[in-house]
Write a structure and sequence with these properties.
This protein has six helices and eight strands. With 282 residues, the protein is an alpha/beta fold. It is extended and about 105 Å long.
Length: 282
């Protein structure tokens, strides 16, 4: 996706709209990772600023946030990044002047796992504008910034559900990333697609060049090692959370038991007091 030509065509295909221009806003984190040669690697989170061509002929500028994950536990990471982007501004032209303004946000999630109760490979969540009193949908989409900047559109792509047996151009293109094409070398996919498109050819050529680059393969090995360690750490965190939840439930159970015993003692005190009162009358 660092190849802006490929990124522009692929994002246009996913969003089903023409992107006139695309620029990348990399969020770079430098990490020291201990290897035999003390390699330093840069981890990028890619956000794109896109200029769209609208049906009315006008253009619109928006921020596209692209995230991928192999694990369901990355939800909080997604939320954190989204929160950061809601605070970002970019330069837009208004009345011939360039001014900093917040942009509309479109999120795209590429998932290496299958969500519960979502049986489709590509799901779009789009803003729906409804009169809450009558329940009727508005006849037009509001253009007010209050509405546009406080809500966002999203696309969720479940890679395992993609299939090459489709005439849909989006699924056909994204299927090249499907892990069912994995080989003994986990960095190489034996792509078995039989249909070709100009965009697919560009992606194949780009990936072929990348896998032939020794430095790139070295970085992928390091990223795999890091990912494995992150998975181990995440598993430990989940285990600790489960243990804490179990301890919390046990403490709650003990608290209820103590409360019950306290109530029993109070009831016995009342019985004793009643007996004493009865005996004193005799």
């Amino acid at each position: 996706m660092e190849d802006l030509d490929i990124a522009r065509e692929l994002l246009s295909l996913i969003l089903n709209t023409e992107i006139i221009s695309l620029s990348v806003k990399p969020q770079e984190i430098t990490m020291e990772y201990t290897t035999s040669d003390k390699t330093t690697i840069n981890i990028y989170r890619l956000d794109f600023v896109a200029v769209f061509k609208q049906p009315n002929g006008k253009t619109k500028k928006a921020l596209i946030e692209l995230q991928k994950s192999k694990r369901t536990t990355d939800i909080m990471r997604f939320r954190r990044y989204l929160g950061e982007n809601y605070q970002r501004e970019d330069v837009v032209t208004e009345n011939g002047l360039e001014v900093p303004k917040p942009l509309e946000i479109i999120t795209i999630y590429l998932l290496g796992f299958i969500l519960d109760d979502v049986p489709v490979a590509i799901m779009q969540v789009k803003n729906k504008f409804v009169n809450a009193v009558t329940g009727e949908a508005l006849l037009y989409e509001p253009r007010d910034q209050f509405v546009r900047l406080l809500n966002h559109e999203s696309y969720t792509i479940q890679i395992p559900l993609l299939t090459p047996n489709t005439k849909n151009k989006v699924e056909l293109t994204l299927d090249i990333f499907n892990q069912r094409y994995k080989t003994a070398d986990r960095h190489i996919l034996d792509y078995g697609g039989t249909q070709e498109t100009p965009l697919l050819n560009k992606i194949v050529h780009r990936l072929t060049r990348a896998i032939a680059d020794e430095q790139m393969r070295k970085k992928m090995d390091i990223e795999d090692d890091l990912d494995s360690k992150f998975q181990d750490l995440d598993s430990q965190i989940q285990k600790y959370r489960q243990e804490l939840q179990s301890q919390k439930q046990e403490l709650q159970s003990q608290k209820q038991e103590l409360q019950s015993q306290k109530q029993e003692l109070q009831d016995k005190d009342k019985e004793i007091a009643a007996l004493k009162k009865l005996l004193s009358k005799k």
